[in-house]
Amino acid sequence: MNIVLFHSTYGLGPAVRQAADRLRSAGHEVWTPDLFEGRTFDTVEEGTACKEAIGKDELLKRAVLAAAPYSERGLVYAGFSFGAAIAQTLALGDEKARGLLLLHGTSDVAPNASADDLPVQLHVAEPDPFEPDDWLSAWYLQMGRTGADVEVYRYAGAGHLYTDPDLPDYDGEAAEATWRVALAFLAELDGNAQGS
């Protein structure tokens, strides 16, 4: 599959590069846009300040421009936390999108969004302060209305960004379980794409 993988609020750091390498090892083509133009951060607060300084519209514009050269191939959009929110927005706006892999994050669903049969997989901690239960329930219903085919996986006791080995949130067992399921999801999408 052709995958565009968006980083979290921490920026395009080692964890994102490692994830991209893992996906490439499974046979996928992966691009990792740097929406912060080389800046990485040690804390959520620093990353959030950068994100707010750049602005939502500019970040979305950067993401669209980064994905555009590959979108004709049919992309799987993926991302971590803030990057997952970006990936969701782009996938719901791309008729050629092949799938959506959300790690630790979601975003608002536009009322007129349409994603007929788009395969979507979400992996989140349980509980997750950034993705509370009532929000996720509403999000799931809204995604269903778009026509997306959504699977949600919850990981009890894990921290928010539990797949990032450089953070205190890291949970090795939950991270490996996530990657096992996510790689199977991508392999199925790849099989479906080659069969069509």
Give an overview in words.
With 196 residues, this protein is α/β, with parallel strands linked by helices. It has one domain (2-195): Alpha/Beta hydrolase fold, catalytic domain (Rossmann fold), CATH 3.40.50. It has helices at 14-25, 44-54, 56-71, 82-92, 133-146, 172-195, and strands at 2-6, 29-31, 75-80, 99-103, 119-126, 149-156. The chain has a six-stranded parallel sheet with strand order 2-1-3-4-5-6, sandwiched between helices. Helix 4 (82-92) links the parallel strand 3 and strand 4. The longest helix is centred in the C-terminal third of the chain and has 24 residues, at 172-195.
SSE layout and pairing:
Layout: E1 2-6, H1 14-25, E2 29-31, H2 44-54, H3 56-71, E3 75-80, H4 82-92, E4 99-103, E5 119-126, H5 133-146, E6 149-156, H6 172-195
From the structure above, extract its key features.
single chain, alpha/beta, 6-stranded parallel β-sheet, 6 strands, 196 residues, Rossmann fold, 6 helices
Give a short summary of the structure:
With 196 residues, the protein is α/β, with parallel strands linked by helices. The protein contains six helices and six strands; from the N terminus they run βαβααβαββαβα.
Strand residue content: 15-25%
**Widest sheet: strand order?**
2-1-3-4-5-6
Oligomer: single chain
* CATH class term: Alpha Beta
Helical fraction: 40-55%
CATH superfamily: Alpha/Beta hydrolase fold, catalytic domain
Number of domains: 1
Overall mean pLDDT: 95
Give the CATH architecture: 3-Layer(aba) Sandwich
Q: Gyration radius, to the nearest Å? A: 15 Å
Number of strands: 6
